[in-house]
Each structure stands twice: as structure tokens, then as C-alpha cells.
Amino acid sequence: MTLNTASDFFKNLITETADKSEIRVYEKFMAILNDLKNKDLKVEQLRSIEEELDSLHLNEISENRKKHFKQKLTLFIKYLKETFSLISKGYYTAIGISLGMSFGVAFGAAFNSVSYGLIIGMLIGLLVGATMDTKAKKEGKVLNTKLN
């Protein structure tokens, strides 16, 4: 299934439902497909993505379409992350902040100042994460779509 075919498929599904949460799943799929269209992908990479879309069996519609396509979206995002190292905007920043807060609390507890440890850890995590996000953006590994 090509990127255009998959995108058209989800456009048609949007017109068939009134469930807002189901529409969000379809729109997220379409946004990722559009981001992939705008990337400079090699022919092999594009072929690999199209094969993955085929292997997801998107045309097989189950009784609970929202759950079905949400699972397929999760698998597709995982594939993009593992195969092409594609991440969402702010991915490393979010991880850096959470890890910084965790280590900051532990470090702050050792010096009887949890709040200062939390703040300092969060700032360090923010700086490290933002640096890694900038590097990933320069390498072209960032999708504009929010993946979570």
C-alpha cells in the first residue's frame, strides 16, 4: 500500500464515522503519512515503509475499528522508530526532563533539599534533551507529528 493510497484510505474512514476519538486516530495516521511524504526518503526506505503498511493489513476492518487502527498505529510508530529512528518533536526533551527529575529528587534527598534537586535535575535534563532533539532534527530524524 503506497503512502497516497493509505492516506486516501484514512480520509474515507473519517467520512464514515462520527466518533471523535476514532477520527483522531485516523488523523494521526494521516499526519504521519504526510510527514513521510515530505521527507527525502530513498527508494528502498519508501519501499520498506510501503511493505510495512501492507503487513499491517489495514484493509481488514474489525468490529471495533478504533481499537483495531489504534493498535496498527502503535505498531507503525514502533516500526518507524526502530527501523528509521524517527521520533516526534520534543522526544528527547521529555525523556530528559523526566530522568532529570528522578535523579534530581534522589540527589536532593541525599542533601536534604529535594526541591532544589528536583529543579536542578529538571534543568539539566531539559538542556541535555533539547541538545539531543536539535541533533536529531539536523539529521532529519524528527517527524512533525506528535506521536504520543
Descriptive key words:
single chain, 148 residues, mainly alpha, 2 domains, two-stranded parallel ribbon, 6 helices, 2 strands, 74% helix, elongated
What percentage of amino acids are in beta strands? under 5%
How many domains? The number is 2
SSE string: HHHHEHHE
Q: Please, how many helices?
A: 6
- Walk across the major sheet and give the strand order: 1-2
Give me the secondary-structure category. Answer: mainly alpha
General form: elongated
Note the main sheet: 2 strands, parallel
- What is the residue-mean pLDDT, rounded to a whole number? 90
Distance between the termini: 24 Å
Give a short overview.
With 148 residues, the chain is mainly alpha-helical. It contains six helices and two strands, in the order ααααβααβ. It folds into two domains: 3-84, no CATH class; 91-138.
